[in-house]
Amino acid sequence: MIDDRKILFSGMQATGNLTIGNYLGALKNWVKLTDEYECYYSVVDMHSITVRQDPTELRKRARKLLTLYIAAGIDPKKSILYYQSHVSAHAELAWILNCFTYMGELNRMTQFKDKSAKHADNINAGLFTYPVLMAADILLYQADVVPVGVDQMQHLELTRDLAQRFNSIYGDVFTIPEPYIGKVGAKIMSLQDPSKKMSKSDENPNASVYLMDDPDTIMRKFKRAVTDSEAVIKYRDEQPGIKNLIDIYSACTGLKPEDVEKEFYGKGYGDFKTAVGETVVSVLKPLQDRMKDLESNKDYIDGIIKDNAERAARTAEKTLRKVKKKIGYPEKIR
Ligand code: ATP
Ligand code: LTN
Questions:
Q1: Of 105, 127, 242, 275, which has the most beta carbons under 10 Å away?
Q2: Are 244 and 194 a contacting pair, CB within 8 Å?
Q3: Domains along the chain?
């Protein structure tokens, strides 16, 4: 069967527990893209070690994240779900691309600056060349599109520059990837500080709703969500807390913000928070049930891990072989 879908690549790090921000802003949209595109969704565990990790914890979280991709509705037959570290081509191409990347380019990366400020005791070379590994991820699969948040746009720009640089020296080797920015870029903000995005590494557990939170915890977090004293449910920048709750409700129900305003016209914040909490609980329930099911089915998940990594490696190796030939690595004697 000929697969004429365009190719899409994206990845997530298994650091911390996923929040409804990750789900509503990324994972939920990933699922929708799997019909139109041939999707490679990686658990980017090689990127994770740029920050010091507890080995047992990393292994556990990586497996949880891969399982969550499936629980969210990504079909591992239709798409390819795999650990980055299981396909050695990522490391090999990253090295080669390192030799085509200028220090000045990496010095400009804002994520590097942010992360080195945050981890001042461990500013390692991997953190510096993080974007080059990301370029390798994308270019190995000849991805046409890459769904990323705005925070990753600079890395995607670098990927395009590297691909163009390489192609201009060696001919058409890499597809130049385009960013895919979702229509309603549901950016979910912290429940405790609506000027900050909800993030899985937030130290305050009340700031984020985690995908595996139980209903009581979810309801409590929404009840405690920071709002204002305006006492009207309006979608506007002057009321960032309420705006965020409307965004969450919209993302869960598919309603437009103005319809949410209408639905809750004249109602108090207490009622609204309860409604948002209940909606989130009902969206997460099936996901949590599937997660439990899948986690008890070890052989099934192991099978996917093995089979999907092999499929990914086949594609990646093809690109890598071409690159090695172009740059003049001696051929292997068989
Ligand atoms: P960390 O706290 O470890 O930096 P994070 O929660 O900010 O993590 P990332 O691993 O950087 O999440 O991103 C994973 C995916 O989730 C990306 O596609 C990103 O755009 C998306 N995402 C993260 N946070 C949000 C949010 N608050 N709203 C919408 N999308 C988000
Ligand atoms: N850096 C990204 C994760 C990531 C990625 C990728 C995203 C690693 N490789 C390739 C898209 C394509 C992040 O932190 N969100």
A1: 242
A2: yes
A3: 7-185+298-327 (3.40.50.620), 215-293 (1.10.240.10)
